[in-house]
Amino acid sequence: MLNEFKEFIARGNVVDLAVGIIIGAAFTAIVNSLVADLINPIIGLLTGGTDFSGHYLVLKGTVPEGASLAAARDAGASVFAYGSFLSAIINFLIIAWAVFLLVKAVNKVQNSAVLKKKAEEAAAPAGPTQEELLMEIRDELRATRA
């Protein structure tokens, strides 16, 4: 069982997956900072400083007028926290857009590297074909027999 586990871990795709998860976790911190520290303040300026995350409706219970969402929940009221949901949707869209732009940039770099490699291969002198090599071998064999 231990040997089977070692074989499983040693497979390339498992190691690649582990690296991907680690890089993804590190990238998550970067994207979250991008959203929270750079993009959300700009959106706040455009919406007049409105923070949707505190908006809610009281479904059951009593809450003092103007109480925060946390205070309403602490008071035991049943709340419909539509603002938190809207904030989550907005954050998701911003994160998805940032990831899209990153993937697009990485694909562009990869494509340019592939095109450069193809251009280098095309510019390199072509070696003999398989048929030409076989003909040379044939001719050498004929020359050694004669």
TrEMBL record:
Transmembrane portions of the chain: 12-31, 79-103
Designated name of the protein: Large-conductance mechanosensitive channel
Claim: Membrane is one of the keywords in the record: yes
Species assigned in the record: Paracoccus aestuariivivens
Family, similarity comment: Belongs to the MscL family.
Subcellular location(s) of the protein: Cell inner membrane; Cell membrane
Subunit (UniProt): Homopentamer.
GO molecular function: mechanosensitive monoatomic ion channel activity
GN (gene name): mscL
